[in-house]
Automatic annotation (TrEMBL):
<keyword id="KW-0378">Hydrolase</keyword>
<keyword id="KW-0540">Nuclease</keyword>
<protein>
    <submittedName>
        <fullName>Uma2 family endonuclease</fullName>
    </submittedName>
</protein>
<dbReference type="InterPro" id="IPR011335">
    <property type="entry name" value="Restrct_endonuc-II-like"/>
</dbReference>
<feature type="domain" description="Putative restriction endonuclease">
    <location>
        <begin position="11"/>
        <end position="155"/>
    </location>
</feature>
<keyword id="KW-0255">Endonuclease</keyword>
<dbReference type="Pfam" id="PF05685">
    <property type="entry name" value="Uma2"/>
</dbReference>
<dbReference type="GO" id="GO:0004519">
    <property type="term" value="F:endonuclease activity"/>
</dbReference>
<dbReference type="InterPro" id="IPR008538">
    <property type="entry name" value="Uma2"/>
</dbReference>
<dbReference type="InterPro" id="IPR012296">
    <property type="entry name" value="Nuclease_put_TT1808"/>
</dbReference>
């Protein structure tokens, strides 16, 4: 007698009807969790950083809230920066991790959960990750599989390709730019 087909937790999660509700749902560590609703400063920083990156590069595209399939996770980064030749032609999630991911920490967000998501994506091929903490005016940066470096003030943040030179001060100032 054939055994019944089993559905993986990731497949079951992706079949849920509400995962694209706002804010989006993610599957991290086998647990479905809804992202926090972004604050005004979070939203401004996200928008302005996407626009800044996109103006400076044709090789990469910065996308807000793009679902990625990185088994067994399904993260939705605040910003996913992806080489344009990796983007799907269909309106669907990105298969695999972004080349560069940016997370903006919300005040009530668990930093360990964010780091776990980042580390999983780095382990699966993400080359660069930023974790921006607006309140502390710091950016934690991971490159490849190295330990993170904390940047602040006039420190110039690393990027991919020939994308902008941006300091932490300039990034944090984007929270005030309309």
């Amino acid at each position: 007698m054939p055994s019944p087909m089993t559905t993986s937790p990731l497949d079951a999660f992706l079949q849920r009807p509400n995962i694209e509700a706002s804010p989006a749902w993610e599957l991290i560590n086998g647990r479905a969790q809804q992202k926090p609703m972004p604050t005004l400063f979070h939203s401004r920083l996200q928008r302005n950083l996407v626009n800044t990156i996109d103006r400076q590069s044709e090789a990469y595209e910065a996308i807000q809230e793009l679902r990625c399939i990185v088994p067994p996770f399904s993260p939705v980064s605040d910003i996913a920066v992806v080489k344009t030749d990796r983007l799907p032609d269909a309106d669907e999630p990105l298969q695999g991790p972004p080349d560069w991911l940016v997370e903006i920490r919300s005040p009530d967000q668990n930093i360990l959960d964010l780091q776990h998501k980042i580390l999983h994506c780095l382990d699966q091929g993400t080359q660069l990750a930023w974790l921006i903490d607006i309140q502390r005016q710091q950016v934690w940066v991971w490159q490849d599989r190295e330990l993170p470096i904390v940047y602040s003030g006039a420190d110039v943040l690393p990027t991919l390709g020939n994308i902008l030179e941006l300091t932490v001060e300039a990034a944090i100032a984007m929270t005030q730019r309309r």
